Amino acid sequence: MFNYNILTTPSFNTNKKCIDSIFECIFNIVNIPQNWTLNIVFLDDDSIKNLNKNYRNIDKTTDVLSFHYFDDFNDLKKDDIAWEIIMSESKIKEQAIEYSLWEEKEFYKLLIHSILHILWYDHELDNDYIIMQDLEDKIWKEVFWN
Hints:
Blueprint: E1 3-6, H1 16-29, E2 37-43, H2 45-56, E3 64-68, E4 81-88, H3 89-98, H4 103-118, H5 126-144
Parallel strand pairs: 1-2, 2-4
Antiparallel strand pairs: 3-4
Helix pairs in contact: 1-4, 1-5, 3-4, 4-5
């Protein structure tokens, strides 16, 4: 299972037990190695916009970016940082209002989504979208409805 670090603390509440449950559930459901460390960082919109422009050629703010730092994970140790998830706190707050959710719940939804991206899932094609959405729904139900 992933080790994770939250490097910056958002202004909204998060619950370590819920975050741990998300990681544990993904570990149990997704049969892809998850043996290294992942950082979670909250940045301002200008910083996210710059990263999005530099790495994806998209000149706008986004809610979350996921970064892989290695192509081959065979020689990494458990404490090696293999990935980062960069989140926009203001986008989380905006989307929480838009979707009538608490900010914390929107964060958990984006965290699940981002971890699946880290594990090579995508949603560019219709079939891939269905697979990823089904996994997100399954994880959400497992963590929050059980």
